[in-house]
Amino acid sequence: MNTVLMKAITLVFWVLAITGWIQGWDGLLGYLPTIGGVVALIHVLEVLLFLAIFRKKSTNVRLDAVQVFVFGMFHLQKFMPKR
Hints:
4 helices, elongated
């Protein structure tokens, strides 16, 4: 699938998770902040992976680290070898 589309969907997820946390949504939507927290922890691990392995391939380490935190593997794929 298109990486840009997946990044856009991920951004929508973050907006919904943060909005649900701020507004205190109930029901199924009330799980979004919890799911967002779990995803954030996974993305922290991905940032650590990026810093440990792919840091030298980056031209702007801070910007790429932030993008890896927000978009996860969808941004990290940019640094992985192609098959």
